[in-house]
From TrEMBL:
This is Uncharacterized protein. Residues 57-79 have a biased composition (Basic and acidic residues). It comes from Streptomyces boluensis. The lineage of its organism: Bacteria, Bacillati, Actinomycetota, Actinomycetes, Kitasatosporales. Residues 50-79 are annotated as: Disordered. Keywords: Coiled coil. Residues 1-28 form a coiled coil.
Amino acid sequence: MADISDELVKLERSAEEERAKLAGLTGAAYATQRERWRRAADEVRAAITRHAQASGRDADEVERAVHEAARRSDEDPAE
């Protein structure tokens, strides 16, 4: 899907970065980081929903495209 904005991809990557920070945490530190991740994930989902409504596309389709675009943007273009 060519119309996935860079902003959606940035939001998705940010949420994934927050999720990755959960590794190795326990107790209060885990709970605090989990809340950061949930807020970031909620922000991504809301942005995806807004984009889907504005473009007339299915939100699940947009979400898949955002996930795919975020994964592609992690790839090294030199490889």
